[in-house]
């Protein structure tokens, strides 16, 4: 689902947040363990850590490629997969920043089609 007119990750984040139906910022910020002001900054496309980005993708059930770059479908699929995404987000949360970066690089390499 391409969203014409949605140019920044912050705008896509706001769209996903609205679509998911969270009643207030606190509902989402509390679930991912950040402040409301951090979430507000991300709505303005300000920098975000890989860890928090992954948590947002899990909680909002959105495709990371879509959220970051606007490519592909915005949803990850059926909500019955959410427990697995939550488990992955929990593992990522316990990892050191350097390990998260290495994991992201590895996943990018194994999911990028060969030329």
From TrEMBL:
CDD domains: HTH_XRE. InterPro entries: Cro/C1-type_HTH, Lambda_DNA-bd_dom_sf. Residues 27-67 form the HTH cro/C1-type domain. SMART domains: HTH_XRE (SM00530). This is HTH cro/C1-type domain-containing protein.
